[in-house]
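Lab notebook, bench 4. The sequencing result for the construct came back, and we need a structural model before the next group meeting so we can plan mutations. Quick request posted to the team channel:

Model the 3D structure of this chain.
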Amino acid sequence: MSRLSNTTNYSALLDDLSRFSSGGAAEVGGDDNNLLKFHLPIHEHRRTLDRDTLLVLGGRGVGKTQLFRVLNVLKNPADLIGNGHEPDAVTKWKPQYTAGFTISGTGFPRTEVLEEVRSHIQDDPGCLWLGLLIGVLLRLDSTHEIIQERLNAHNATVLVQNLSAPSQWLPIVRNELEQLYLALDNIDRNLGERGISVTITYDDLDLLAARLSDAYPLIRALLAFWLRGLRRWKAIRCKIFLRTDIFAAEELAFPDSSKLRPLSVTLKWSADNLYRLVLKRLLNGEKQHDWTRFLSLPSAKVHRQEPWGIVPRTDERDHRGVVERMIGKYMGTDKRRGDTYQWFLNHLQDSRGDIAPRSFLKLFEFAARRQLEQPAARTERLLTPEQVNGALMEVSQDRITELREEFRWIDALKEKLRGTVVPMERGEFRKFVRGVNPKHLPEHIRESIDAQIDYLIGLGILRQTDDGRIHVPDIYLFGFNLKRKGGIRRPRA
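Done. Here's the predicted structure in token form:
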């Protein structure tokens, strides 16, 4: 049994682990070097690079914004798949990615500004997206001259310098509609002749308006705009990063919207990639030499690969060895307490079996914080099962806090459910859902309690057991202040 050696700096490792989940995270606006150093390139992202993939879907914490940023800073987007083999669709084109909308930085309109102009574009929200696209292409060396052939110098300057102020350029877009679309056709033809592909990326679309219901028309117009563009253009492409539940909402339906599903990819993380992500963060951090000694991974299992830094090539056997060194083989004195490797997967999955990498990282981080607060008595492992168990409750509460930013009804449901015991009969669960004000729920489910329950099941927050009872996965259980009776078999992660 591996133990902490006398030369291991126990406190230094715990301190590093206690703050590593935010390293390189897109939300904190880290620099590009850290962004790539802490991002794990995985094979599952291959379809994201497909030229016909228009939509990149995923829930909160699955890494959409980070992937959005990574694509926009990579010199060669094919590096994303991490194995050096470029997809056929990529090798035929010299790809260039650039942001078409994000709330990060100052290049695009603020939510408050879009609220002000919403009444002016509600009849034709496509003008907003056309104007933003033209403004972005005017900033690129490969495309700006072609647009300037169709726009006078003053109008081009307004779009370039005042793209974050749509009230100043929306009249230009309306007046020059024909010329702007001709410019886009010319750009597509010119880029194609040179073998260049320009991909426009979109993120933070749920923040287009203060209320999600007001953002739907703008998102719907963007999807319709690019569905038409995908048919017309070959060299101009796009990637739209969108929450899965928003894409599934009936409010986004429009003629031909059913054709979007084959053009989408949903981000998911395998168990091995979740553990590799933990290792990558540790092996590329400030204490990478200490972690290299402590983890004792075979040299063949770690590989330096630019621009990603050290990339683990580990498998389940390696990951089991890592958690055993850090915590122990079991979450207690014997296997009755659960296999540690599988314990992390079982307790962090939602009802669909999905695990958000952010929650996976935070469980290690919160456990390390708790361990640092304990008396100085040394243990055989870096983390004790007791602190990991306690950290799970914090991660669950943190997950509910994250969801509250997207789903305003979470607080009301949490208050109604406080202290109740699950699983419970569906009929009994209806009573708690009935007491929640439905005004913040999607419009198409407001009139039906069963539709609201099914919506929560679809989000992965609830699970219906084989005998029809309603249960809540651990990742949400503690955050809702629920109690659990008996042992309910979980779907295997």
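Residues 407-484 form a domain with the Arc Repressor Mutant, subunit A fold (CATH 1.10.10).
Will bring this to the meeting.
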